[in-house]
């Protein structure tokens, strides 16, 4: 299995970075590269460092890290939205090259940088890598904490469902319902060339994604700009913000390693945890819910796996970690009873679909994060069982992009980058306790 996972990362390598999938995703993706670097540190720490630095070479002047960095050698029709849709090189503060998207993805990068360094802290270049990355990561977090604090309480808001990483989650159905979709004949879905329509977002949802992306582009990617009715989306997502807080803790560790005071970063992480609990924790549900900043309802009534990701965080208020663990194993997610792995959405919801992208299948990166959360909060037995199911399912499906959570049937792309990378991380075992 080690050899197979390493072969996937070798095959998906394109120059200094790694694509998630040669067919479906032929460019560099932001949080994919962070997870891929976490696995690469087990094989080749220098390549892991290059993976992250290549991504951050496309960072915008305002600090944002774009969710796609486009490979100019790939034909425009191989992926949509393509560079000529985003037009990043014409946007204020964007790099002249390479072309990128204008939206972002979950900020797991500081955690990845710290883990990459810890894999080989005495290796020549590792400390210098930390020193180069630290100001870039600080700028990235500053962008999220300032430009994206659309709710005014300190949490980062999403301006597009794709920014959550969990693209077509039912948690976005309510805020998306007011978005007027782009006409179907105004764009071409390249994803359907490589995947089954039953596994992918619907045309209605995709039309709404295109409308939101075009409106954001036409505003010059200004986060606080007014956008027309029918093209507004602003949501505080618990998964995105949990990863921001986890990366704040990682930034504190990086600061200490560089001889700086980690205190401000640690305090910031603790403060954000308090805000996350105050705004998004739902005791009756036993998990965190997203908050729609544009609609009248405070929270959409859907329960997604993103609401479990704060289990990653230390110093949660009393009872919350226990409630999250109970939710993992309860009727909504069924870990260890109905399911091999944690599904991406509530099993009891009418919107749950075990094969359609983020509407119900299990994803390996989410399960890797939750495994770390179980370890964080004193459940080594549960973490070991999840680790075993993760590795068995990934190996049996040729490192599938995602799987049916109950049967383990592989779905989406095969030989998927972060699935292979995170298998390497778990196989290496030294990651326990980091």
From TrEMBL:
Name of the protein in its database record: Mannosylglycerate hydrolase MGH1-like glycoside hydrolase domain-containing protein
Family: Belongs to the glycosyl hydrolase 63 family.
Domain Mannosylglycerate hydrolase MGH1-like glycoside hydrolase: 25-419
Organism this protein belongs to: Streptomyces evansiae
Keywords: Glycosidase, Hydrolase
Pfam families the record matches: MGH1-like_GH
